[in-house]
Amino acid sequence: MILLLSGAGEGREITDRLLRKGYKLITIASTGYGRRQALHDGSREAVTGELGRKELTDLLEQKAVKAVVDLSCPFPGRTSKLVKEVCDRRGILRLCYMPEEIGLADNALINPVFSWAEAAHKAAGLGDTIFLTTGSNNLEIFLDSIKDEGLRIVVRVLPEHRVVKKCQELGLAPRDIIAMQGPFSKEMNRATFKSYKASVVVTRDSGKAGGIDTKISAALSLNIPVVVIKRDRAGDGIMVRTYDEVVKMLESVF
Fold first, then answer.
1. pTM value?
2. Is 222's pLDDT higher than 60?
3. CATH of domain 2-97+233-253
């Protein structure tokens, strides 16, 4: 059994490839949407929510997991870090999927940063309306950073009840919550940024698959500064750049 650690809905391609190779999959998804998508794509089981150390250890043991493919490595959350800890302790192979970072153009409007807190601070100094394309993750950091500044935050998230509810509970008004499923073209991003009068856009460097290129090009076409959160490479483990590498690595072991 292979454990796939995904986000909101990534992993369709790698799921298909692994299933065609005969691997059995179980998926940990970050949202209910991701769970439903994983089951639809062929994962034998899929779970969501925050798992504790014991729950995760029991899952790996009961399902006889032989390897983990972690798609969340570019921006690991609590679950990813816990999976790494348990895999290291139990000697389970963990492949950290880390696609190539996009090369950032030498443009004064592009502002690379290396943490969520730095991104919030930088964005607060660049405009009155901060448009977050990073979903609900770490939304609290941005809200805390601007609570006394009189700035507006607009966030684009998946149309998932739990995610929208979190945004509302944190105090965002309905007019500042965009519940849409990507990927988004340059034209769609441009229209959305313009409609919401974005004065600065925040994104993560999740590679082209995450749509960073279309977000940046759309923002620059409107002369809007962009804050790009770069990756923390600490503790990457066995890093793979492509889905082909994932398959080859698994085939070399099993």
1. 0.79
2. yes
3. 3.40.50.20
